[in-house]
Design goal:
This protein has a six-stranded mixed beta sheet, with helices on both faces. Strands 5-4-7 form a three-stranded mixed beta sheet, with helices on one face. A two-stranded antiparallel sheet has the order 1-2. With 175 residues, the protein is α+β, with helices and mostly antiparallel strands. A hairpin with a 2-residue loop joins strand 1 (21-25) and strand 2. The chain is built from four helices and 13 strands. The termini are far apart. The chain has one domain: tt1808, chain A. The protein has helices spanning 9-13, 37-56, 112-124, 170-173, and strands spanning 21-25, 28-32, 60-63, 68-71, 74-76, 80-84, 95-96, 101-105, 129-134, 139-143, 149-153, 157-158, 168-169.
Length: 175
């Protein structure tokens, strides 16, 4: 039986920059490949539209691929994140706790099991909503901690209880 080499968040923070994207999941180093163009376009669109709404209404910050410490040895970087103004993090550090909304854009090689773990970690870290966008399936899921899942199909609109008035047409997000 193979054993996993675990590391602390402090050890993770001391890793040299190797040009790859890494996260830390329960002490396990997770290395991800560079996303494909469809993923990047989707990330840019949802981040831009959400960011514009949040900025216009002075609600907080929207960022992409920023680390959030979700537990002692858990550091995740959602594709897009929203943090309410009342919870503004130190801009020179990783976010403490989950963003209010974590948005994950699912790549074709991402396993359902890995995605499930990531979503659970966001909620354990205090996240309020997780949006999971499936570009190839042309749908999105809005998940909440109580296991509520709202499925948005290609012609549907993403709305959030945290952002009254926000209406993002999924067809405008998906390339």
């Amino acid at each position: 039986m193979a054993t996993k080499t675990l590391m602390t968040l402090k050890e993770f923070g001391a890793l040299p920059d190797d040009g790859l994207k890494h996260e830390l999941s329960e002490g396990e180093l997770v290395t991800m490949t560079f996303p494909k163009l469809r993923h990047g376009l989707c990330q840019n669109r949802v981040g831009g539209m959400l960011g514009e709404f949040v900025l216009r209404n002075d609600l907080g910050v929207v960022c992409t691929e920023v680390g959030f410490q979700l537990g002692p040895d858990v550091l995740r970087a959602p594709d897009v994140a929203f943090v309410r103004k009342s919870r503004m993090p130190d801009l020179d550090a990783w976010g403490q706790g989950a963003p209010d909304i974590a948005i994950e854009i699912v790549s074709p090689n991402e396993s359902a099991a890995d995605l499930r773990v990531k979503v659970e970690q966001y909620f354990k870290g205090g996240g309020v909503e997780v949006w999971v966008i499936y570009p190839e399936l042309r749908l999105a899921e809005i998940r909440k901690p109580a296991k509520d899942v709202k499925v948005i199909e290609a012609e549907g609109v993403i709305e959030s209880d945290l952002l009254p008035g926000l209406r993002l047409a999924l067809k405008d997000i998906l390339p």
